């Protein structure tokens, strides 16, 4: 496990600064460039060290069909920094392209699509995150090859790589039931796609509702959702506000599932402000396993979604297209539950 001292040494700051950045300390005064360096270094060390990547010189120097790649991101740069999971997806793409000596152009979210010339000059495009049907159609029209990373357009003619969030949610809920939790709350958002808010359609939320109903335990009071007026609503402050709503219930939940680790951090603050103890009074479990998860008090139990593998695999799918594959391929990257101190673990069977 990477330590705060290792991150601090790599970036050239103090361990205290790293800790405050990773814990989203709002009082910390630090430049956006330095903040981004800390978050990207934390992701990069987590990404490379456990896998002991073998970057053989001969392999890195091998010629590649992928000479230029365009990354189209659904987030603004500031939003990406606020959600290190997506930093991991991008680093997976960039590290794989570095091995291939591929030129990269990055286009972050804006009100307009990328310049047509930029796409036509590239070998292919990797699209990160959710995009509307119109945006998907436009990208297909103007790019030679398109791969979607961390988004499944539900079109089997397209290439995509993603984690199965419905399956991950069922894994969480089955584990919580086995651990003896009865009142399972959920914090998340509605879906916002194609210019409209789709009530209860976000995949983690929909899977939670479906599981609760099948188990005869659905209680709408335990469901706290953001309005999702923008595409990126799973933030720390939203998690804080929604956690307060659940904590105000007369019969509050004994565990809260949050839609990502950022929301979990907000829930931690709400719980601690109420002088409650995690996990004795209320437990927390989440998704993504961003670097800060291991440094919270107590450390956060979360579903690890391998963002770096999603990014790597997206590049590999693009290489397959360039090599002649003429059919769509969808790749599902496995998730895993990482048990830490914020939640009781089921007894071993």
CATH architecture of the largest domain: 3-Layer(aba) Sandwich
CATH superfamily of the largest domain: Response regulator
Low-confidence region ranges? 49-62
Main sheet, how many strands, which sense, barrel? 6 strands, parallel
Number of domains: 2
State the distance separating the first and last CA atoms: 27 Å
Strand content: 15-25%
Plain-language structure description:
The protein has 349 residues and is of the alpha/beta class. It has 13 helices and 14 strands. A hairpin with a 2-residue loop joins strand 7 (191-193) and strand 8 (196-198). Helix 1 packs across helix 2, helix 6 packs parallel to helix 13 and helix 9 packs across helix 10 (203-214). It starts with a helix and ends in an 11-residue tail after the last strand.
What topology emerges from the helices and strands here?
Layout: H1 4-11, H2 15-22, H3 32-48, H4 57-61, E1 68-73, H5 77-82, H6 84-100, E2 103-107, H7 116-121, E3 124-128, H8 133-142, E4 146-149, E5 159-163, H9 165-178, E6 184-189, E7 191-193, E8 196-198, H10 203-214, E9 223-226, H11 236-247, E10 255-258, H12 261-273, E11 283-288, E12 301-305, H13 307-322, E13 330-333, E14 335-338
Parallel strand pairs: 1-2, 1-3, 3-4, 4-5, 5-13, 6-9, 6-10, 10-11, 11-12
Antiparallel strand pairs: 7-8, 12-14
Helix pairs in contact: 1-2, 1-3, 3-6, 6-13, 9-10, 11-12
Features of the shown structure:
349 residues, Rossmann fold, 2 domains, six-stranded mixed β-sheet, 13 helices, 18% strand, globular
């Amino acid at each position: 496990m990477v330590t705060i001292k290792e991150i601090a040494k790599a970036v050239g700051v103090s361990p205290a600064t790293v800790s405050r950045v990773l814990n989203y300390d709002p009082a910390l005064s630090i430049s956006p460039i330095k903040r981004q360096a800390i978050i990207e270094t934390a992701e990069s060390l987590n990404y490379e060290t456990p896998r002991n990547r073998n970057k053989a010189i001969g392999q890195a120097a091998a010629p590649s069909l992928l000479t230029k790649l365009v990354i189209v991101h659904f987030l603004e740069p500031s939003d990406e920094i606020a959600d290190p999971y997506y930093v991991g997806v991008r680093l997976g793409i960039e590290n794989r392209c570095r091995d291939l000596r591929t030129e990269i152009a990055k286009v972050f979210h804006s009100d307009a699509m990328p310049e047509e010339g930029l796409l036509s000059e590239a070998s292919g495009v990797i699209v990160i995150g959710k995009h509307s049907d119109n945006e998907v159609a436009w990208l297909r029209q103007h790019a030679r090859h398109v791969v979607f990373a961390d988004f499944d357009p539900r079109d089997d003619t397209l290439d995509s790589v993603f984690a199965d969030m419905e399956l991950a949610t069922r894994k969480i809920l089955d584990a919580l039931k086995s651990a003896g939790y009865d009142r399972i709350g959920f914090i998340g958002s509605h879906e916002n796609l194609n210019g409209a808010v789709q009530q209860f359609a976000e995949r983690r939320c929909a899977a939670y509702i479906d599981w609760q109903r099948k188990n005869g335990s659905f209680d709408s009071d335990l469901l706290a959702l953001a309005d999702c007026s923008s595409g990126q609503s799973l933030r720390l402050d939203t998690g804080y506000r929604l956690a307060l709503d659940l904590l105000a219930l007369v019969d509050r939940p004994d565990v809260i599932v949050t839609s990502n680790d950022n929301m979990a951090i907000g829930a931690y603050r709400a719980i601690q402000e109420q002088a409650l103890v995690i996990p004795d009074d209320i437990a927390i479990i989440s998704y993504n396993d961003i670097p800060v998860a291991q440094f919270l008090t107590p450390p956060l139990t979360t579903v690890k979604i391998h963002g770096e593998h999603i990014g790597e695999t997206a590049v590999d799918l693009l290489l397959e297209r360039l090599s002649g594959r003429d059919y769509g391929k969808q790749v599902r990257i496995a998730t895993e539950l990482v048990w830490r101190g914020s939640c009781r673990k089921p007894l071993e069977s």
